[in-house]
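Show me any protein, fold above all:
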Amino acid sequence: MKKNKDIPPLRNVPSVSISDEHVPRVQELAEKGFSKQRIVNILPLPLSVFKAALLMRMETPGDIYHEAYILGVTTRQENILEKLKEKAEGGDPDAVKAFLDYKSMLDECELRYKLFGV
C-alpha cells in the first residue's frame, strides 16, 4: 500500500494492512456494477476494520484497489456502449437514442472527473 508522507498516522487507531489478493475480485465485481460499499461487504474480510481499510484504499487515487475499481467500472461502461452500438447498427431507433444519450453522459462524467476529480 502506498503511504502518504504528508499525513501523520492517527493515534489510537490500529494499523491495518490489506494484501493485494482481492484486486481481481474487486475489478470483477465493479464490472458487474456493484458499488464500493457492496464490494467491501461481499468480500470475505474477517473484521469491520479490514472492511473500512479496504473501502479507504478503494477511494484513494493511486492505490491498486482504486485502479482496479475504476478499471472494472470503465470496462462495464465500454461493454454497455458496445452492446448499444451493435443494436443501433442493427437499425433499432431506440438503441440509437440510448447509445447517443449514454455516450454523451459518459463524456460529461469523464470531463467532470478530469476537472474536479468527482
The longest helix spans residues 64-89.
